[in-house]
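Data availability (excerpt). The following record was deposited with the supplementary files.
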Amino acid sequence: MRILVLGAGALGGYFGARLLEAGAELAFLVRPKRQAQLRREGLSVRCPALGAWCRPVTALLAGEVRPGWDVVLLSCKAYDLEAAIESIRPVVGPETAILPVLNGLSHIDTLREAFGEAAVLGGLAKIRATLAPSGEVRNLSNWRYLTFGEMDGRMTPRVEALAALARRGGIEAQAVPDIRAAMWAKLVHLGTVAAGTVLLRGSTGQIARAPGGVAFMHRLLERNIAIAAAHGVAMPPGFEAEYRAMLADPAGSYTASMLRDLEQGGRIEADHILGYLLAAARRAGVEEELHALTYLHAKTYEERRAEEKVQRDKDPGRAA
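Predicted structure:
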């Protein structure tokens, strides 16, 4: 199977390495700086479950890629989707499957408009990975889940073959008939943890130890579950109990990647996760004040970040 992975960061680098290990004919579509690093040092991945891995990889720039790929794996952030579409547009053929593992749901319609309904799979990743300053991809836990499927619910040869290949590489991969429900379940989970940890600036355990923290997080979870239900998706059995327990654990160390991005001064997916859930709450008639507050908090950060960038551009010597 010929697979093109857009990006070689935390998600793309990790899943690409595992698919290479399984025997895929695979290349990474990257920017010039990352290409130079990969060509010089190879791709390094570290994972508690699978150990250390390092090998040379094929790293290509946009102008170097040609059509003929079976799967294009999109592992970009949601705010980079438009640029990603333009990068892969020349290489997507009539038989190419596009597998996005972006957060949220709004990207599905955007991709379908660009490439047609038949080309676009639904997908999600469950992994706690980061790209270290050295360029090493680090999986911070045993999570290495990749779930995907046809948006129309069919179990096709292409999704079954991809799932089998991924499992050979050590990925906990599953092709499912109702990927939309799985994506909603992830959005409920991620939307709760992102909203809570970004707004309160702490891990789930730190929030749980604070007065009223558990009740606040449980209220967020309940409202996100209600939003999904109003859009026709019920959470799977045991879902609520599992996440209520996780959010109540005073020893928990879980933070959303959005918080890590924010603390590093980076871009965040405010619109694609928090804004999407706020709009969905309004459509569903679910109490929205918590979602409005968390979205306001994230958008205020974005305004501050933009203002500080303007000041740095005016005065390059100014401290960040």
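Summary of structural features: The domain at 2-177 is CATH 3.40.50.720 (Rossmann fold).
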